[in-house]
Specification:
The structure holds two protein chains of two kinds.
Chain A lengths: L1 H20 L3 H25 L11 E9 L4 E7 L1 H24 L4 H20 L3 H10 L1 H11 L4 H34 L6 H4 L6 H18 L8 H8 L2 H26 L1 H27 L4 H22 L2 H32 L10 H4 L1 H15 L5 H16 L1 H26 L14 H19 L2 H26 L8 H4 L1
Antiparallel strand pairs in A: 1-2
Helix pairs in contact in A: 1-2, 1-4, 2-3, 2-4, 3-4, 3-11, 3-14, 4-5, 4-6, 4-11, 5-7, 6-7, 7-9, 7-10, 9-11, 10-11, 10-13, 11-12, 11-13, 11-14, 11-20, 12-13, 12-18, 12-20, 13-14, 13-17, 13-18, 14-16, 14-17, 14-19, 14-20, 16-18, 16-19, 17-18, 17-19
Chain B lengths: L2 H26 L3 H22 L5 E3 L3 E3 L1 H26 L6 H19 L3 H19 L6 H32 L4 H8 L5 H18 L7 H8 L2 H25 L6 H22 L5 H22 L2 H28 L15 H4 L1 H15 L5 H15 L3 H25 L14 H19 L2 H12 L2
Antiparallel strand pairs in B: 1-2
The chains are: A mainly alpha, B mainly alpha.
Chain lengths: ~500, ~475
């Protein structure tokens, strides 16, 4: 019930913000903030109340199931396990950040902006909690349109190009996924006589290997574009760069995670055999992303493009972790999703703050900002350090777990991926030195962090530190969910090819 | 004729009486509002009587017409669409100083022709319905006869539609020579005897004729010109009612012929479908005129419909019916916006005219966005469920090639829908002379938007109606 309520509050809040925005802009912002905050509380209450143990019937809490289009076997089926809830938590946190950073930046059509923002969040929340494949696809497509508007209306110079590119890339992937969903639906129907889009029914559908491989490719087309994996990543730098700050935060922090979530939740459980066969390619894609993204990031002169390309590199770790498919690597992938969401989201906030003050994103026209804005620079340094994987911060835990897990599955990929640590150090430090150190150009002045920005930064710094120093609670919540997924359809196949499962993932984390 | 036959025919008789009433009224008092009110009343009463005649269905009324759930469903759709077109037309014609009353007589008789088509079970009623529809449309396309474009469009339509009618007639004659009957039921019996040269040639020629009416590629050339030149409400009518009726008839006739007995016919139709999807979407990319974009969009939409049609089986019927309903809503809404925005100085059709529309007319821009997103098949709109339904039918029948082309071409299609949307949400260049929003048109597009969202969010009602229509319980 709560999950349905969470999505409903977002949609209702968005409509209300749109209506109020015509009267009073501050009211629209306040309503949006309130709606997301209420959802945050609800999510935390679910996390606190849930018992995240491995259970027979599934680790899902708070399932809601009611008929929607019964004639086609479609129902409104929501449910969340630890994985969904952690991502939902991230969604609400970054949602609040997005509203706060837009407070000064967005001055046109404020109501409509917040409507779109809350609708994207509703779509994302729906994707993380839908347990009916049609419903999932519905939300998957739903989040595109408001995201498109966020980029196209409030974006920067090349917004029209970037927004259309984003839209078309993701739609193309989405449609191929739709074909696979339907293929799976009819296979299951012909096999059992029950035509349904329900997740639990479709898991474990029997099918010939060749068919499962083709269907898996359809799903991959949808998810790998979103993550993004290397050959289909080219929409990302454009979209992230041209989007307004809140749009970049949502894109990098949340939208990319939906792809990774889809891989864990759907691809491997539906097609364990085909996924096992695909695993070497998947890991190669991950490693390619790690290295290629980092090299691209180093070559950028535009601050937001640099951060955007670093996302490709970080998300490579997620793909690698998923396809290594053992508890350690999966735990790492999940932590990486959370930490990348926070750290890259905050780097975009910093970039947005700088652009707002300096009216440029070109790093060549910056430099020596540390004296002028020490707090802002300090925060930037912190998140750059997080992003390069400094021990003690969350990203280190994540990438380290992924590398350890991968080492057990395939040593070569692990070694190759570990170069990512070095490469990320290079581009992160060069970013810091180009922007904050050196000589300040003549006449360049800027204000330091505002109290609002400072408060956001402090909370996020605390979170990254917490994950870095004491990840145990998060590992426990996600561990049960991941184990459930592993032991489900996937376990039997992958366990043979990969290493034996560790009894407790958390032992390796500390 | 038994009294029950007449009762079953009631909606059609009311619909036939209303243009006569309009003309008689004009003879005594020429007033735009009067004609409009009579036509609205006629359409509403006719729609209401559908529920009455429903009790007598299914029933073959003379060998010419069959009144069953299928024909009643599509007649209802046609009546509602005509109602929307009348509402849109009223404000549109108010702005123009032509003789306005006769327009409604033409519109109503066109609707009559269309409903005859969906109820026809005989070549004679098929052809009669089609000609009633087409003859009314020739005059309607040319109705703003001060405009050269309108005249050009009318002539093109006249010439090409006549040629296609000739093809159709020849095809019918060939099939008659083979089957010895012009009745649908008879054709179904004869076609089981197996294919023959006459039947194949006849079917092919009928297909050419129908292809013209549906504007399927490669018979689509007239569409953009006619849609561009015709008054926007008439374009809406041509794009929806005229095409929808012919498509409903196509489904009825060709379900009598088993497509499996004519494999090359299947492949020809598949080819036409693929061509329509690709040509429609690709050529739309090159357009800068909103009406032409919508015209090409309608070509591709009909291609999608063929995918479901070729899937055959009950699921395909349901998909076709749902898609047609959702297509009606979105197309009527889109052309409705063009009509509503048209000022006294003429229609605003260039993409530049729509730049920054959202800052001037936020509601209209929002509605247009919804309609375009529905045509593109995105969620919260009817088009999403409709496209899902179509793809679902195609996948069920295992027609992966068609479905993949559908997916690819709808990604291409997304580009030009988004182009229009991007124009509406971009910064305003200069003040564009938008007209006052007329009340009738405003109501029509508002109701269409509600329908669009309702079908997109809670589709089970309409799906339920459609399934009852197909499985009959």
């Amino acid at each position: 019930m709560t999950l349905g309520l969470i999505i409903l509050i977002l949609i209702a809040g968005g409509v209300l913000a749109w209506a109020l925005g015509r009267v009073n802009e501050v009211l629209a912002r306040a309503v949006s903030l309130l709606a997301i905050f209420v959802d945050l509380i609800l999510t935390i209450s679910l996390l606190a109340g849930g018992e995240f143990r491995i259970s027979g019937g599934g680790a899902f809490v708070d399932q809601l199931k009611m008929p929607w289009i019964p004639q086609l076997g479609i129902s409104l089926h929501f449910g969340a396990d630890g994985l969904s809830l952690l991502l939902l938590l991230l969604t609400m946190l970054l949602g609040i950040v997005s509203v706060l950073v837009s407070w000064r930046e967005i001055t046109e059509r404020v109501g409509f902006f917040h409507f779109n923002l809350l609708l994207v969040l509703a779509g994302i929340a729906g994707v993380f909690t839908a347990l009916d494949l049609f419903l999932f696809y519905f939300f998957w497509e739903l989040m595109l349109i408001p995201m498109y508007f966020l980029i196209a209306v409030w974006g920067h110079e090349k917004r029209v190009y970037a927004s259309i590119k984003f839209f078309i890339f993701t739609q193309a992937g989405g449609l191929l996924m739709l074909l696979s969903i339907l293929g799976l639906f009819y296979l299951h129907g012909q096999d059992t006589g029950v035509y349904t889009f329900d997740y639990f029914s479709l898991v474990g559908t029997r099918m010939p290997y060749a068919v499962s491989f083709w269907l898996m490719l359809g799903f991959l087309a949808g998810f790998l574009v979103k993550v993004p994996a290397v050959p289909v990543h080219s929409w990302l730098p454009d979209a992230h760069t041209e989007a307004p700050t809140a749009g970049s935060v949502v894109l990098a922090g949340l939208l990319l995670k939906t792809g990774a979530y889809g891989l864990i939740r759907f691809v491997v459980p539906f097609f364990p055999d085909a996924s096992a066969a695909f695993a070497p390619v998947g890991m190669a894609l991950g490693v390619a992303g790690i290295i290629y993204g980092a090299v691209l990031a180093f070559g950028q002169t535009d601050m937001k493009r640099l951060i955007a390309n670093s996302s490709i590199s970080h998300m490579g770790f997620v793909i690698l972790g998923i396809y290594a498919w053992n508890t350690l690597a999966l735990q790492g992938a999940v932590i990486q999703m959370l930490c990348h969401g926070i750290s890259t989201g905050m780097l975009f906030v910093i970039a947005g703050a700088l652009q707002d003050r300096l009216h440029t994103r070109e790093m060549a026209r910056m430099g020596g900002l540390w004296d002028a804005a020490p707090a802002l620079s300090g925060v930037a340094l912190f998140f750059a350090m997080a992003s390069l994987g400094l021990p003690g911060l969350g990203n280190f835990v994540a990438e380290f777990l992924v590398l350890m897990g991968t080492f057990r599955s395939d040593m070569v990929y692990s070694v190759l991926a570990s170069t990512g640590f070095v490469l990320s150090t290079i581009y992160s430090l060069s970013f810091v030195s180009r922007v904050f150190h050196g000589r300040r150009p003549e006449g360049l002045a800027l204000a330091d962090l505002s109290p609002r920005e400072g408060a956001v930064s402090l909370v996020m710094i605390a979170l990254i530190l917490w994950i870095g120093l004491y990840p145990q609670p998060i590992l426990r919540v996600s561990g049960a969910a991941l184990k459930e997924i592993e032991l489900g359809a996937a376990g039997r196949q992958m366990a043979e090819t990969a290493v034996p499962l560790l009894p407790e993932a958390s032992n390796g984390a500390r | 004729m038994a009294p029950d036959d007449l009762r079953a025919l009631l909606p059609f008789m009311i619909l036939a009486a209303s243009p006569v009433a309009v003309i008689l009224a004009i003879a005594f008092y020429r007033g735009h509002a009067l004609s409009f009110i009579i036509s609205i009343a006629g359409l509403l009463i006719s729609f209401g009587s559908l529920f009455y005649s429903f009790r007598y269905a299914p029933r073959a009324v003379t060998p010419l017409l069959i009144i069953d759930r299928y024909s009643l469903f599509f007649t209802g759709l046609i009546l509602l669409a005509t109602l929307a077109v009348s509402l849109i037309s009223f404000g549109y014609l108010e702005n123009r100083s032509y003789r306005r009353g006769e327009y409604y007589a033409l519109l109503l008789s066109a609707a009559l022709g269309a409903s005859t088509l969906v109820a026809s079970s005989h070549f004679a009623s098929f052809f009669l319905g089609l000609e009633i529809l087409s003859l009314s449309l020739y005059a309607m396309v040319a109705y703003t006869r001060g405009s050269r474009f309108s005249l050009e469009a009318a002539f093109k339509y006249l010439v090409l539609a006549s040629v296609s009618s000739a093809f159709l007639l020849f095809g019918m004659a060939l099939i008659y020579s083979y089957a010895g009957t012009m009745e649908l039921a008879g054709l179904a019996l004869v076609s089981r005897a197996g294919p023959s040269v006459f039947a194949t040639a006849g079917l092919a020629m009928m297909l050419v004729g129908i292809g013209f009416k549906l504007a399927l590629a490669p018979f689509h050339m007239w569409t953009p010109d006619v849609y561009e030149g015709a008054p926007a409400p008439v374009s809406a009518f041509v794009a929806t009612v005229s095409k929808g009726a012919v498509f409903a008839l196509l489904v009825r006739y060709f379900s009598a012929f088993s497509l499996h007995d004519y494999p090359y016919l299947f492949w020809v139709l598949a080819g036409i479908s693929i061509l329509s999807m690709l040509i429609g979407n690709l050529l739309a990319l090159l357009q800068n005129n909103v009406k032409r974009i919508l015209a090409y969009s309608s070509i591709s939409q009909l291609g999608y419909l063929l995918v479901a049609f070729l899937a055959s089986g009950p699921q395909s019927f349901a998909a076709v019916s749902y898609y047609l309903a959702s297509y009606f809503v979105a197309m009527l809404g889109s052309f409705g916006i063009v009509a509503v925005l048209a000022g006294p100085r003429g229609e605003l059709v260039n993409l530049e005219d729509y730049q920054g529309l959202v800052w001037n007319r936020p509601w209209l821009a929002g509605i247009f966005t919804g309609m375009l997103l529905s045509l593109a098949g995105l969620p919260l709109t009817a088009g999403f469920i409709a496209k899902f339904y179509i793809v679902s039918a195609g996948v069920q029948a295992g027609q992966w090639a068609l479905v993949l082309v559908l997916a690819a071409s709808s990604v291409i299609g997304l580009f030009y829908y988004v182009r229009v949307i991007a124009a509406m949400y971009s910064k305003r260049l200069e003040a564009v002379p938008y007209g006052e929003v007329p009340v009738g048109g405003g109501i029509a597009v508002a109701v269409l938007t509600v329908a669009l969202l309702w079908l997109g969010i809670w589709p089970s009602t309409l799906i339920g109606i459609i399934q009852r229509m197909i499985y009959g319980n």
